[in-house]
Amino acid sequence: MALINQFTTQYGLVGKIDAFGYLDYLKANPDVSRKHGKVVLVTADTPLKASRGEGKTTTTIALIDALRARGIDAAAVLRQPSMGITAAGSKGGASGGGKASLTHPELVDWGLTGEMAAIENAQNLLVSFAEKAVDEGRIDTVLVPRVSEVPSRSLRQIVVDRGKGNVPERVVLTPTCEMMQIVVVSHSMDEIGQRVANMVAGTKNGVPVTFGSFIDLWRITGILKDAVKPAKTETVNGSPVYVHGGPFANVSLGIPTLVSVEMACALHDVVVVEAGYGADAGAQKWLDIASREFGAAWPAAAVVVTRASTWRDDPALSWRYPFHVNRLENLGIPTFPLINLWDGEDDQIDDLRKTAASLGFRSPIIGNLFRDGGKALEPQLDDFVAAFDASGMSAAGDADAVSENGSRDSHKGLGLVDDVRWIARNAYGVPSERMVIADGFESSLAAATQLCAGADVSIDDLAVVAVKSPATMTDDDTRPADERTVTLKKVEPHFGAGVVQVNLTTSLTTPMPKIV
Amino acid sequence: MALINQFTTQYGLVGKIDAFGYLDYLKANPDVSRKHGKVVLVTADTPLKASRGEGKTTTTIALIDALRARGIDAAAVLRQPSMGITAAGSKGGASGGGKASLTHPELVDWGLTGEMAAIENAQNLLVSFAEKAVDEGRIDTVLVPRVSEVPSRSLRQIVVDRGKGNVPERVVLTPTCEMMQIVVVSHSMDEIGQRVANMVAGTKNGVPVTFGSFIDLWRITGILKDAVKPAKTETVNGSPVYVHGGPFANVSLGIPTLVSVEMACALHDVVVVEAGYGADAGAQKWLDIASREFGAAWPAAAVVVTRASTWRDDPALSWRYPFHVNRLENLGIPTFPLINLWDGEDDQIDDLRKTAASLGFRSPIIGNLFRDGGKALEPQLDDFVAAFDASGMSAAGDADAVSENGSRDSHKGLGLVDDVRWIARNAYGVPSERMVIADGFESSLAAATQLCAGADVSIDDLAVVAVKSPATMTDDDTRPADERTVTLKKVEPHFGAGVVQVNLTTSLTTPMPKIV
User: Which residues of A touch B128 (CB under 8 A)?
Assistant: First the structure.
């Protein structure tokens, strides 16, 4: 029996894997047979709107089906979609489509085995403990927001204890909460406990007070016992797919859990990681946060998905797709355009290839993945396979450093504003002189810096998480290149997760979409 | 292979059973082998406070272990404890203790397989749809409350859309919400859909508008797909235990799901159903709601649990235990006192037996169940087994009607206030003339009656759910018998669940206990 089966328990139609236990076992038993798979990112063009995906999950599924048909041991790691958003009809599920589907999309789209709900409960319980701490005089201000999986714009800003205390509070979506971030970056339950201990409950006379100073951490880790286990499912063609961690890389980490990717790399030769919405969100977070700051694998190759129409229909936005492809190439990552055709678009293939050539791209991979699944890709993958075979990148991240902009070094110590400048220049194409400091940003930064100092944390040691609209990279992507700006609006440190969120562009709110 | 295995899927350490499918199969195949088990209620004295249980779950577990040791095919049906309350430390778990424990109490106490969370999400999504209905002008007032599993008193009354709409809303605990009530009483997913369709979203110009008139019901039933399946676990001695449905019979139904009990009766000869807090809450709800109004089995016997100290230490409250035992006996249910000893109380057994005899009780069953488990009970069960063997009651409810007060007829049509009078007289010992109508009750009843009329429902056809403190049966249980009163405070119909809640006694709030 394969070793991993000893760490796997069936939960209905999905397997749940004790990834912490498996990775610990590998560490304690270095002679045990394991793989050192390479990570391939599937990311996308910036979508025209959040509800209109380009087909990243469909591509990821088709890609592993195609690679496995070629005899390569490939697997995918997906983020769990937000049931609240799907159930509300604000957005489709995220389980692929047509011939590029998971066997049980209804499981993945509709709450899996309760992972999101447990994370939501854990953070909400922390809020209850924080309220108790107010009653007991330990803190005078609660800083940790409540959490809801279900979208409801009216929950963004609430008042609790109506008619008595009338305390203003915030509610954020489950995938974006600090507890989700902690689950995404942690490598053990002990680390989760330590990170929860470092979360700021609130302040007392302006000085931050962390949960570790007054709660029983087992009450929180107890709730998370199953939520920390990646789920294993498969494509309709039997290719292995791991699902773990929350979506929404525009407003939070939005990447799969690091342990799910590390586990998959120990089990397979190629691990396709989905990173969206666009490359400016998902790929930026994978590269600049997961890899640089938390030791995740640097990608051996990347695929940037687009639809034929996205690439072409709005001339004012057509700069974005080549920008993403070129940025990743310039980081030394072999990057392949992938054009996900819809019905009636097959006759555009020649034109699309010409456009790609004129832009200096590698030869694009083109197919109707919904209709044809992995079979559409299989014959087109020679260059792609050769590229990641040739790459020295691996899960161990042991390749040479790449070019200046692409250095995989940590940005710790760079300084928060300089780090945002770096992101704006490299990921959004906006130079430093066109960064705009909004009213209130300086005071928000000063307050955050003071909060950090009070907790003996340097704000410059926290990984910067850009919070922005999924559909735009700058304040207005339709403006000419030399007029585009990025505005810094607000700063919010999450000590427990080890990140600091910086609100940019036109979306500064917590993500509670309108129900549709 | 046993038929039930075809309807069972393993979810980690517990089995999840498609009870709807199994019961449908039995109905469609009347010649298939099945049992017609009798229901035995385990209920208790009214607790001195909510956080101090008498030991119902411990007793239930010890009882089935003892019955099985005597060769009787017994099983238990428990309600899932509220993780929020347990994690907050407000109350212990509900998985027994010591030698009378479940094999995996941490599973049952800490969220099982996400059942509560799914029910919470389902009702919260309905609130989001109701808000959308406000935006669209379908309704002008939202009547369905939000739901939280995590206790937080400050959530009882909130304001959403702070700074803009400033809309007042309520939040109730998951176990007490209408969606939980619907799951508890329904026999199929179609019935759940129909009941959700009948839930009142809010009103438009005072006229109730139901969810069925504007939402896709599959969005809600999709969320509930696993939550409707009872979980199967076992005691440390291997006796089968089914867990399904929410607790808190003082403020809601607080009984296991009806399908979980029906399924257990098809599989076993004796099905021990836990019904608490005290007999005035859990047993009252089982008898007067589950059995009378929803067709559940009338109990073939009952056990009323108390501690030696509860029975004796507060003379002003010592009337309650005999009241409960005698009430159930007078309903024709053979009722056995069970005294759950704590360490150091073994020498009280003789005195306890004398007291029981002086009160005219059946011979009490006495043991330290934490220390000795079912072995403490096994030799004492001759009379108990003989009693339910002799009983004509069965899952089919085919016995003769019992005495006047004990008639198992529905109370539909009795009239809400008369029904509460009946409950107060029979379950709390307070005659009609000492019912107190609080200020505001009449207007609350009039508004509820009008709401019902607007929805073409007679309020008198809804099953009355008494909402009260778990620790008291009357406004002040320490007063002399002829001075005790019950106060009617507020009325809240739940059309979907088919019940109307009537707030009584000193507890009129939604149950958000203080976190401790």
Answer: 88, 150-152, 515
pLDDT, residue A356, reads 93
pLDDT of A359 > 60? The answer is yes
Residues of A within 8 A of B113 (CB-CB) are 11, 113-114
Cα–Cα dist A373/A379, whole Å: 12
CA distance A396 to A390: 16
- Is the distance from CB of B356 to CB of B348 less than 8 angstroms? no
Contact between chains at A219 and B89 (C-beta distance less than 8 A): yes
Lowest mean pLDDT across A160-174, A196-210, B366-380:
A160-174
Collect all residues of chain A within an 8 Å Cβ-Cβ radius of residue B118.
Answer: 111, 114, 117
pLDDT in tens, B16-60: 999 999 999 999 999 999 999 999 999 999 988 766 678 899 999
CB contact under 8 A, A167 and B154: yes
pLDDT value of position B82: 84
Rg of chain B over CA atoms, in angstroms?
A: 22
Q: In chain B, what are the domains? A: 12-114+226-390 (3.40.50.300), 115-223 (3.30.1510.10), 416-504 (3.10.410.10)
Q: Do A222 and B106 touch (CB under 8 A)?
A: yes
ipTM reported for the complex surpasses 0.95: no
Q: What is the pLDDT of residue A401?
A: 41
Best residue of B17, B125, B144, B224 to probe chain A, by most A CBs closer than 10 Å: B125
Shortest CA distance from B215: residue in chain A? A88
Euclidean distance between CA atoms B175 and B180, whole angstroms? 6
In chain B, how long is the greatest CA-to-CA distance?
70
Cβ of A152 within 8 Å of Cβ of B168? The answer is: no
Partner-chain contact B128 A152, CB within 8 Å? yes
Cβ within 8 Å of residue B298, ≥6 positions away:
B39, B287, B291, B333, B393, B397, B399, B408
Buried b (16+ CB within 10 A) or exposed e, A48-77: bebeebbbbbbbbbbbbbbbbbeebbbbbb
pLDDT digits (tens, 9 = 90+) for B81-106: 888 777 776 666 667 888 999 998 88
Count of CB contacts below 8 A, A vs B? 169
**d(C-alpha B281, C-alpha B288), whole Å:** 10
* Cβ-defined contact of B150 to A121 (cutoff 8 Å): yes
Digit-coded pLDDT (tens) for A39-54: 999 999 998 876 667 8
Task: Out of A62-71, B52-61, B417-426, pick the least confident.
Answer: B52-61
Residues of A whose CB is below 8 A from B159: 158-159, 162, 166
